[in-house]
């Protein structure tokens, strides 16, 4: 399981970096794209804070510049790598009790939280890609299979 999450975190870093590159090079960036990218990173930070039991410094829906996104992404990656190096079956089953952004209390396993983080980012990266395409730009592919095989997935033929 440790190797599985290490690989997911490697994809997360790769994909978040490609979104940043796409946003930096966009000719017609949509405000919503930066909002979603900031949210991906803010949510990653929030979940890491919950797992480590530390105070979060960034909201789940923060307002960030691209430079601030890059800095937060780097911090998140360092923390994910640290967490991955310490993952054991027992740690994955640890229960984390937390309050969501509206104050409701939940308890989840570390494994479920980490799985959610990986899926959550993929969902919003897809929204960002759609927004960039709608603005006439071509986003970098961020699909897991593109990461795994080192080549982008096929695109629709025109």
Task: Give the secondary structure arrangement, pairings included.
Blueprint: H1 2-25, H2 31-52, H3 66-86, H4 89-93, E1 95-99, E2 105-109, H5 110-134, H6 144-149
Antiparallel strand pairs: 1-2
Shape: globular
Runs in which pLDDT lies below 50 for 5 or more consecutive residues are none
How many strands? 2
Share of residues in helices? 55-70%
Enumerate the strands of the largest sheet in spatial order, edge to edge or round the barrel: 1-2
Largest sheet composition: 2 strands, antiparallel
Mean pLDDT: 93
Secondary-structure element order, as H and E? HHHHEEHH
Radius of gyration, whole Å = 16 Å
Please tally the helical runs, counting DSSP H or I stretches of 4 or more residues.
6
Query: What percentage of amino acids are in beta strands?
Result: 5-15%
Structural class of the secondary elements?
A: mainly alpha
Distance between the termini: 41 Å
Account of the protein in words:
The structure is a single chain. With 158 residues, this protein is mainly alpha-helical. The protein contains six helices and two strands. Strands 1-2 form a two-stranded antiparallel sheet. Helix 1 runs parallel beside helix 5 (110-134), helix 2 (31-52) packs parallel to helix 3 (66-86) and helix 2 (31-52) packs antiparallel against helix 5 (110-134). It is globular. The chain starts with a helix and ends in a 9-residue tail after the last helix. The mean pLDDT is 93.
